[in-house]
Amino acid sequence: MLPGTMEENSEYRNFIRLSVLLLDFGKDVLCRLLRFKFEAIDELRRLLDDNKRNLSKELSYSQRGILYPRDGITDTVYEKLDFSLTCVLIKTFLETSKSHDGKVLKYINVLTHQKDRLFCNPVCITVDEKKFKNMWDTLQQALIDIGTECFTEKSLEKKINEIYDMTITDFDKECHKTYKLQKVSDASTLPTKKSYIWTEGRARFVEISGWLDVAVIMMRSVLTKKISQKELAEKILQKPFVLKDLKPYQKKKLLKMAQDNEEKKQKENWYQDLDFTSLFFSLRHWGYIPKHTSGWGKPPNKIDFSLAADMERIRLVRRKVLNHKNGTDMEQVDYVEHKNELSSSIKRINDQLKDKHVEKTMKQLFKKWVISEYMQLKHSHQEPSEKEKC
User: Domain segments of the chain: what residues?
Assistant: First the structure.
């Protein structure tokens, strides 16, 4: 169920706070750590050249373009890194370094696992209080333990508390100013210009996350129509090695569900427990859906409106949103592009499905949701102009 407002729904607010803590604050802490490890850009360049083959396997096309541009990387590369890319680079450095830092590597794995917990769930944009407390405490501990290599513990706690206290009635007048990382030598405290409070960009991020939730609901409906749970379970058990491309926890979940289904221990509808990636994977491999004209895994042709093409468009938007260089502070141009892509793709697919639940949630998003709510509240908190006073 989609929440009405952030103030009315604490589970909605929990999602926002965890997103900002992880994708914004977490990325900034890790990026500073990376710069701390590589004081000279030549050192980072050598690491990338030595590990190009292995890194290329883990990166998306756009991420490879950031690390391996035609003209070679410069100091500006740090401003282009997203959370996932920064984690990959630090892990690569630690795993190939003679002075292996097990503590940092452990916490990097903790952070990536928590990201999966937050964004790879059957329902994305709400987090209950029990799960929120568990995730918040885990992330806070990991970020403080990693961050104290570059920052004071007091400065880290101050920024974490700022995110914890975030509400939709906070407005950041400086949020659109360009933020540049300070030199490593000045990294004893977190930069005061960097804001982690509620902004219009973050309202855009949450609304797009809402559209991605609708996409999950719709993908379940597609999978239900394309293949029965019994047939899917049989196919998984016949060829379990096909699951090798999934993350370990996704592979484990699908295998367990298939085994339970075989032994008649499974609940009536186990598709409800699958996340977007597992649904997409199942449809691609066992849903009897012909690939689009460009082929699976590639951006579809603009005039290709097949089911496979629209599924691919949704997948690509999801990847862009979760690997955005500015974390949750989404620019207007990206918001418009993502919203148009998602809404049109979902509508075309649902025109065939005619799923009333999908239609209902789409209407909620079209009618009035996060962005309009944010702008109304922002206007109500602004000082009246001279003309309005008269």
Answer: 10-149+182-188, 201-378
